[in-house]
Write a structure and sequence with these properties.
This protein has 503 residues and is α/β, with parallel strands linked by helices. Helix content is 32%, strand content 18%. The strands form six sheets. The protein has a five-stranded parallel sheet, with helices on one face. A four-stranded mixed sheet has the order 1-10-9-8. The longest helix is centred in the C-terminal third of the chain and has 19 residues, at 449-467. It is globular and about 65 Å long. 55% of the residues are buried.
C-alpha cells in the first residue's frame, strides 16, 4: 500500500495564474506542482479588460463571442468580461506593475479581434512573468497556503468522488487525500511537434480527469498561434500578437503582404484565420515572415521578443523574422460550469485545463490570463461550499504505481503525427491515418506515465475532430470547409472511469 497523507485544506494541482488565484481566495489551501515553469510564465500577451471610457464589458463580450465560432457560452463570457476591472485591480493590489503612459494611466494595447484598445501589458511583452511574480510572492507570504513540489500523476477516488491524488516521489509513489481537488494544470500544446508551450504542458490534468470518468468537452478545438519564431527551437518562441497591434506586418519572401486577401482586418484578423493563411503560404512552398522593422524603440518596448530573436542571430529592428503557426492554447478540456465544478463530485477544474465554453471554438487574444484570474476567484468561493472529508476505500489506477514517469521516443512520433494530421488543416482521411498510427504506437506509449497521458488525450482529440464534419474556429476540415448550422453545439465526451485498485 502507498503511503497516505490526509490534508485538512483543499488541494490545488498547478501553480499558474489560475491555480494561485484559487489558492489565494481560499481560507486555507495546499498547492502541489512541479517546479518547472508553466504557460503563464511564458505569456507575452496581455490581459484584456474593459478599462477605458470608450469601452465596456458588453463590447468586450461582443468581441469574445464574435471570434468564438458561435459556440461561446454567453453567461460564461459575461462573467469573464464583467470581472476584468476587478481582476486588474486585484493584481495591482498584490504589487503587479503594468505599463503606463506619461499621464500615469494604464497603457492599453490592441490585438486581433478587439474593437478597441483594452489589453494591459507589463514590460511590453512579459505580462505573464509579471503576473506570476506578483502571485507567487503573495502565495509565499501567505501562511495559510502550503506548497508541495511534487508531480501529480493520477486522481484517487473514494466511492463516486474524487478524494485525492497520486504523487511521484522519485521512483516512489504516495497518496494525498483532501476535502476538495482543484485541477489547474494548463493545456496540452506539447502533443504537437510545433508549439509555444513549455515542456510541462502535456495535458496531464485533462487526461487524469478523463480516467476518473469526468466529462470532457470541445477537444477538437486547438488554437494555433500564427506567429511563432521558426528557428529550430522547441518550444518555439512566441512573437506576441501585440507586435501586429503596433503595426508589424506578415509578408512573404519578397516582402509582400498577403493577409488582406484572407480577411478585411488583415494582420489583426482572428488568430485562426491568420494562422491558416500562413499555413497555406507554406503549403504553396513559400516562406513567411513577420516584419516588425517599423516599430520604433523595438528593443525597449519588446525585450522578450528581442532576446528570443537575438539568440538565433536576428535583430527584430533590422531583420525579417521567420514565422510559423504553432499549437498555443487549448479551448477544449474538462467540462466545467462557471464555478469550476466538473461532472465528478469532489473535482473542480479551472484555467486552460477546463472547458467552460467561455472561448467557444476560438479564443479571443489576451482572454486567457483573464480567465485564470476571474474564474479562479469564482472557484475559490465555490470550493468552500463543497468540502467533504475524504471517505475510506481510496482507489486509483494500478498503472500510476507501476510505470516510470518519463516518456520515450514514441512521444516524439506522436507529436509529429498530431502536427501533420491533426494540426491547422485537417481532413477525414488524415484523421483516420492519425487514429491508426496512434493505435499502433499505443502499446509503446503506455509503458510510461507521460506516454499514457499523451496516448489518452491524443486519441480523444482525433475522435472529436472526426465527429465534427465542418469547419469552425480552431477546427478546420478541408473536406468540410464551411460551418454547418446543424453542428453549432459543443462536443461532450462522457467517459467510463478507468479500472482502479485499492491504494
Amino acid at each position: 500500500m502507498a503511503r497516505h497523507t490526509t490534508l485538512d485544506a483543499p488541494l490545488v494541482v498547478g501553480a499558474g495564474v489560475a491555480g494561485l488565484t484559487v489558492a489565494l481566495g481560499l481560507p486555507e489551501a495546499c498547492v502541489v506542482s512541479v517546479p518547472e515553469m508553466g504557460s503563464t510564465w511564458w505569456a507575452q500577451g496581455g490581459i484584456a479588460a474593459a478599462l477605458s471610457s470608450e469601452d465596456s464589458p458588453q463590447r468586450h463580450a461582443t468581441d469574445t463571442v464574435n471570434v468564438s465560432g458561435g459556440l461561446a457560452a454567453i453567461r460564461a463570457v459575461e462573467i469573464l468580461t464583467g470581472g476584468g476591472r476587478e481582476a486588474i485591480d486585484r493584481l495591482i493590489s498584490l504589487g503587479a506593475e503594468f505599463d503606463r503612459g506619461e499621464d500615469g494611466q494604464l497603457d492599453l494595447g490592441i490585438e486581433g479581434g478587439h474593437q478597441t484598445r483594452r489589453v494591459v501589458h507589463a514590460d511590453g511583452d512579459a505580462t505573464g512573468a509579471e503576473v506570476m511574480r506578483a502571485l507567487t510572492e503573495a502565495v509565499s507570504a501567505d501562511d495559510r497556503i502550503t506548497q508541495i513540489d511534487k508531480r501529480v500523476i493520477d486522481l484517487v477516488m473514494s466511492g463516486d468522488r474524487v478524494s485525492g491524488v497520486v504523487v511521484a516521489e522519485g521512483k516512489g509513489r504516495s497518496v494525498l487525500q483532501a476535502p476538495a481537488i482543484i485541477l489547474a494544470t494548463g493545456g496540452a500544446g506539447r502533443l504537437f511537434a510545433r508549439t509555444t508551450n513549455p515542456p510541462a504542458v502535456t495535458g496531464d490534468g485533462i487526461a487524469m480527469a478523463g480516467r476518473a470518468g469526468a466529462r470532457l468537452a470541445d477537444l477538437e478545438f486547438v488554437q494555433f498561434h500564427p506567429t511563432a519564431l521558426h528557428a529550430g527551437k522547441d518550444p518555439m518562441p512566441l512573437l506576441t500578437e501585440a507586435l501586429r497591434g503596433e503595426g508589424a506586418t506578415i509578408v512573404d519572401a519578397h516582402g509582400r503582404r498577403f493577409m488582406d486577401r484572407y480577411h478585411p482586418l488583415a494582420e489583426l484578423a482572428p488568430r485562426d484565420i491568420v494562422a491558416r493563411a500562413i499555413f497555406w503560404q507554406y503549403d504553396k512552398g513559400q516562406s513567411v515572415y513577420l516584419d516588425a522593422r517599423g516599430i520604433l524603440n523595438f528593443h525597449d518596448r519588446f525585450p522578450t521578443v528581442t532576446a528570443h530573436a537575438m539568440s538565433v542571430g536576428l535583430d527584430p529592428a533590422t531583420d525579417l523574422l521567420p514565422i510559423s503557426p504553432a499549437a498555443h492554447y487549448y479551448m477544449g478540456g474538462i467540462d466545467a460550469d462557471s464555478n469550476g465544478r466538473t461532472s465528478v463530485p469532489g473535482l473542480w477544474a479551472v484555467g486552460e485545463c477546463s472547458s467552460t465554453g467561455v472561448h467557444g471554438a476560438n479564443r479571443l487574444a489576451s482572454n486567457s490570463l483573464l480567465e485564470g484570474l476571474v474564474f479562479g476567484a469564482r472557484v475559490a468561493a465555490d470550493v468552500a461550499t463543497g468540502l467533504v472529508d475524504p471517505a475510506p476505500g481510496a482507489r486509483a489506477a494500478k498503472e500510476a504505481f507501476d510505470l516510470p514517469l518519463v516518456p520515450g521516443p514514441a512521444l516524439q512520433d506522436l507529436r509529429q503525427i498530431m502536427w501533420d494530421r491533426v494540426g491547422l488543416v485537417r481532413t477525414g482521411d488524415g484523421l483516420w491515418e492519425a487514429r491508426n498510427h496512434l493505435l499502433e504506437l499505443d502499446p509503446v506509449l503506455r509503458r510510461t506515465i507521460g506516454g499514457r497521458v499523451a496516448a489518452d488525450l491524443a486519441i480523444h482529440i482525433v475522435l472529436a475532430a472526426l465527429r465534427r464534419s465542418e469547419s469552425r474556429g480552431g477546427h478546420y476540415r478541408a473536406d468540410y470547409p464551411e460551418e454547418d448550422p446543424m453542428q453549432s453545439h459543443r462536443t461532450l465526451i462522457d467517459l467510463t472511469p478507468a479500472d482502479m485498485v485499492p491504494v
